[in-house]
Amino acid sequence: MHIVVCVKMVPDTTQVSIDPKTNTLVREGVPFITNPFDTNAVEEAIRFKDRYGAYITAVSMGPPAAEAVLKKALSVGADEGVLLSDRAFGGADTLATSTVLGAAIKKINEKRQVDIILCGKQTIDGDTAQVGPGIARRMDISQLTLVDEIISVNQNQRTIKVRRKLEGYHEIVESGMPVMITVEREINTPRYPTVPGRIDAEESGIQVWTNGFLKLEPGTIGLMGSPTQVRRIFAPERKKGEIVFGEGDKKDLAVETTFEKLSEWDFIST
């Protein structure tokens, strides 16, 4: 079994601010991390490896610094890493991103048949949840989104059964392989890398593929291949200040304060 897991380097959104003059994200001095949803995808790939002896290829599209997220995947058990890095890929929206990732996975499939593609449900910097399905469309394979449990895998029949988390209920779905799966955070708890794992990851070479290798049309990738563009980013204006009530052993005080505030706002009469 061969699993490709997609990971992305994203800014730590807990430390992101917005430039009030340009209305763009201030990236200087902001630490970058592996997209949290993708860490669950990596963990699920490792669990496949533990159960079925799967081979795992981690793939990321980004600048040279994105090697760090691939090495993190290698440190917990991925077998190889491929970085898609080229200035021609810059400025890509979800359409152009899935085009590049889809083409790269097809190249990987030529060397070793790919059975499952794993992605996080979405990224914390875009929150579109479009790249995984976009990859499936470009590869013309089935997609299972919002998966919070892998129920069973039949390697002989090349089928997989999963549980999907929908609004208010769950759905059990079976699909043939190859298949693209996007996972929810609830599917697992990511493991920490071991010291030997970190050392092996640092010593492992990351393959870097440019568009010279993929040979995609310039008009289908990067900014030129992106029909959607971000015009402005801004924080919503807060019209009223928030009130933080007590917690823990101050619950009684919180209830009392709530009623006092409601009385002041004429929502209830005393």
Outline the secondary-structure elements:
Blueprint: E1 2-6, E2 9-11, E3 17-18, E4 25-26, E5 32-34, H1 36-52, E6 55-61, H2 67-76, E7 80-84, H3 94-111, E8 116-120, H4 131-139, E9 142-154, E10 159-166, E11 169-176, E12 179-183, H5 195-203, E13 207-209, H6 211-214, H7 251-264
Could you please describe the fold and organization of this structure?
By secondary structure, the chain is α/β, with parallel strands linked by helices. It has 2 domains: 2-220, Rossmann fold (3-Layer(aba) Sandwich), CATH 3.40.50; 238-270, no CATH class. It has 7 helices and 13 strands. The strands form 3 sheets. It has a 9-stranded mixed sheet, with helices on both faces. Strand 6 (55-61), helix 2 and strand 7 form a beta-alpha-beta unit. Helix 2 (67-76) packs across helix 5 and helix 3 (94-111) crosses helix 4. The protein is globular. The protein starts with a strand and ends in a 6-residue tail after the last helix. The model has no long low-confidence stretch (mean pLDDT 89).
Note the main attributes of this structure.
single chain, 270 residues, alpha/beta, Rossmann fold, 2 domains, 9-stranded mixed sheet, two-stranded antiparallel ribbon, 30% helix
Structure at a glance:
The radius of gyration is 22 Å and the shape is globular. It has helices spanning 36-52, 67-76, 94-111, 131-139, 195-203, 211-214, 251-264, and strands spanning 2-6, 9-11, 17-18, 25-26, 32-34, 55-61, 80-84, 116-120, 142-154, 159-166, 169-176, 179-183, 207-209. The protein is 30% helix and 26% strand.
